[in-house]
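Protein 1 of 2
SEQ + STRUCT:
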Amino acid sequence: MRYRTHLATTLAISLPLMVTSDSLSVESLSIVALGAVFPDIDEPHSYIGRRMIGISNSMKVVFGHRGLTHSLTGLIAVTFIFYLGHTTFGLPLELVHWFAFGYLAHLIEDSFSKKGIAWLQPLSKKRFQSGFNRIYYNTGGIIENILFVTATLILIQEVLQLNFSDFSFEYINQFLH
């Protein structure tokens, strides 16, 4: 799945959860978006890989694409690093949770690709395809494009339904400064 589909799908799922949990902020949106693209750090041609080329090349050599970063072990390890950011630097725990949510959403989304993912790496390299090889998409294919457009339309509808009087623009000012 391309980064834009990961972002649109994950944000369309996350936005109502953030609103109902009273955690909607620029920071929470940004960190869930980071989590949504982060597992692809193991692919130098990915959106995040092109921005972290040295790390991305190393990750691909060591783990391969859709290797350890596309597993529960990768999710736990990277979330633990973010948790250390909470304990060491005071990163709000809520943001650690949103990062993990975005990361998990990425894994679930990729598990519906034709190839699936190896959820249990490094214990097992067996790939699981969540659609039971009946419901799946190919990266860049027509189904992915339909998913992207659908998620984008849902996201637009959700944004239009937001009550901006409840949204504190103080977050935006803090983020920009």
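Protein 2 of 2
SEQ + STRUCT:
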Amino acid sequence: MKSQENELIEKVVQVKRVTKVVKGGKKLSFRVVVIVGNQLNQVGIGIGKASEVISAIRKAIADGKKNLIQVPLNKNYSIPHIIQNSFGAASIILRPSSLGSGVIAGGAVRIVLELAGVKNVLAKQLGSNNKLNNAYATIIALKKLKSIQQTLKHRA
């Protein structure tokens, strides 16, 4: 377990200043979205809120490590099949791509796919440009993917 944690890479996607209105005025804090992955087949998303950016990043990384998922990849480091998913107003489409085409995606979707270890994929964001919702939509889509072995086992 220790060697796995050392291999994880963290990337900060968004740092947002948020306020809460209380009796004495406005209370300022920061919300940080971090993607954590090992570039092999594990990826997770974490959110942290604190009054300082550094402590919010630390909380987000800890949350991301708790929420790691396994991503089934085929032999040319692509996803096994086409998948479409939405989260809130954000909707994404992921398509497998041929060897050498690279990750064709934008924003938070690209970061999630790169840290998951997907090297050849076509992705399109539809609807919202919200980084958090697009990242969640990608994570949920990757969670729904089924490997070739799982599909064959289900058919038998």
